[in-house]
Amino acid sequence: MKFDLQHFLESPESVDEVSLEALPALLVDISALLARLASTQARIAARLRMLSEAEHDPDEDRLIDVRAAADYLSLKRAYLYALIREGRFPAVRMGKYVRVRFRDLRTWVQRATTGALPIPDPRAREYVRRVRGRKTR
């Protein structure tokens, strides 16, 4: 059975008039509509992201050295180099030089702020134990 979903959007109380036998079919139709809406929403969001990326600040593509990146993040240079070596921090290698794109730096900070970064290596607990000279739980 096909329903006029627009009618239910305009007056949700009209669902009370639908027979109990027809409710599962109505629920299926609404679920299908929600899936199509979610797909449309994702496409709109992707287009908006592309638009914002097209109008980005040219300084975002600027490459900075690891020292400047470490200063920006208030990290030790050796720690940042270790993150780069482990592949946990984005970097551009040009021969013996390692550079960081400023946009990648900002993205990394944003991901770290929202908690989207991977959990640290489990070996970190062992390292802390050895450095502190005591057992960890």
Describe the structure using short key phrases.
single chain, 137 residues, mainly alpha, 3-stranded antiparallel beta sheet, 6 helices, 8% strand, elongated
Walk me through the structure:
With 137 residues, the chain is mainly α. The chain folds into 2 domains: 5-54; 59-130. It is built from 6 helices and 3 strands. A 3-stranded antiparallel sheet has the order 1-3-2. β2 (92-94) and β3 form a beta hairpin. α3 crosses α4 (77-85). The longest helix is centred in the N-terminal third of the chain and has 32 residues, at 23-54. 4% of the residues are buried.
List the helices and strands and how they pair.
Elements (H helix, E strand, L loop, with lengths): L4 H6 L12 H32 L8 E3 H8 L3 H9 L6 E3 L2 E5 H13 L8 H10 L5
- Number of discrete domains: 2
Low-confidence stretches: none
User: What oligomerization state is this entry in?
Assistant: single chain
How would a textbook summarize the main sheet?
3 strands, antiparallel
The DSSP helix count reads 6
Fraction in helix? 55-70%
Query: Could you tell me the radius of gyration in angstroms?
Result: 26 Å
> What order do the helices and strands follow?
HHEHHEEHH
Shape: elongated
Structural class from helices and strands? mainly alpha
Distance between the termini: 60 Å
Mean pLDDT across the residues is 81
